[in-house]
UniProtKB/TrEMBL annotation:
Catalytic activities: an acyl-CoA + a 1,2-diacyl-sn-glycerol = a triacyl-sn-glycerol + CoA; 2 alpha,alpha'-trehalose 6-mycolate = alpha,alpha'-trehalose 6,6'-bismycolate + alpha,alpha-trehalose
Keyword entries, A-Z: Acyltransferase, Hydrolase, Signal, Transferase
Protein name as it appears in the record: Acyl-CoA:diacylglycerol acyltransferase
InterPro entries associated with the record: AB_hydrolase_fold, Esterase-like, Mycobacterial_A85_antigen, TAT_signal
Family stated for the protein in its record: Belongs to the mycobacterial A85 antigen family.
Signal peptide: 1-38
Database matches in PANTHER family: DIACYLGLYCEROL ACYLTRANSFERASE_MYCOLYLTRANSFERASE AG85A, ENTEROCHELIN ESTERASE-RELATED
Pfam families in the record: Esterase
E.C. no: 2.3.1.122, 2.3.1.20
Amino acid sequence: MTDHRPSRRTVLKAAGGLTAALGLSGGTILATSAAASAADDGFGLHIVDRNEDNARMKYYRFATDAIEWDPAVNVLLPDDYNSGRRYPVLYLLHGGGTDQDFMTFDKMRIRELTAGKPIIVVMPDGGHAGWYSNPVNSNTGPRNWETFHLNQLIPWIDANFRTFAEFDGRAVAGFSMGGFGALKYAAKYYGHFASVSSHSGPASIRRDAGLVAHWANVSSAALDLGGGSIYGVPLWDEARVTADNPMENLERYRGKRVFLVAGTSPDPINFFDMANERQVLAGHQEFRAALRAAGIQHEGLEQPGGHVFRGDMFTHDLEGILGRLRKA
């Protein structure tokens, strides 16, 4: 059996370099809240806080046995939601960071960039370094983000909003750690999403001696799991790594819309940015080459700049998403 114990040099390199997990975005959304409901909704979720005052943006916080703390979710409705039509849904996954729990609309300008678009955008909490996974072990209580998102949240969204609850009605996209989560979910849950987009998210987690998988372990242990790990330490749970690695699940992208973007010129003065996007770009290039060799259609773009969310690329991506999904 291969020994996957990271050396001190590997861990330090990861901690200093691959903050691809940490797509930093600060702030919170909707500081006020309406009266909460503790009623069981039938999906293992209990609403403990909510704000539905804004015409487009709805905020919910849930209690769930899948997550020790109460994760929050933002639901951004189209301008004409009151028309009575049904809409496709984009699940938009945030990057990692120590000062935010879920996608921040204001910094990413998602509300502005989706104005006038006939799509519901769901932005769930994914943990500071949750990696959109059920960890091998946790010392801080349950942190089963995969269970929360796929088994609980999606059915809840379909039951409470006018969606197309089907393969052709859903897309998943994300930035940084969220870009990895999007690629993982689209492959692992084959029939859930017709379109997948990774904005500077790792696509190859075994390359460079498994640097991304090691970083998932290091970052999650420090920020979320109290020393626990996503994939196992000192040895990985190899089956989990394989199931999560986009590079090892190429056929599960066939027949889907696949969009990838990464930066080509990270800030040479900012070591963290440089290490982040160099690793992401190399992984995207490896993944795109494998998709081409397999004859799987995709769109892969390389843009100037480093490890940042690109609003113009999100706008371009959104048009492709709308073109692939069922029309409202």
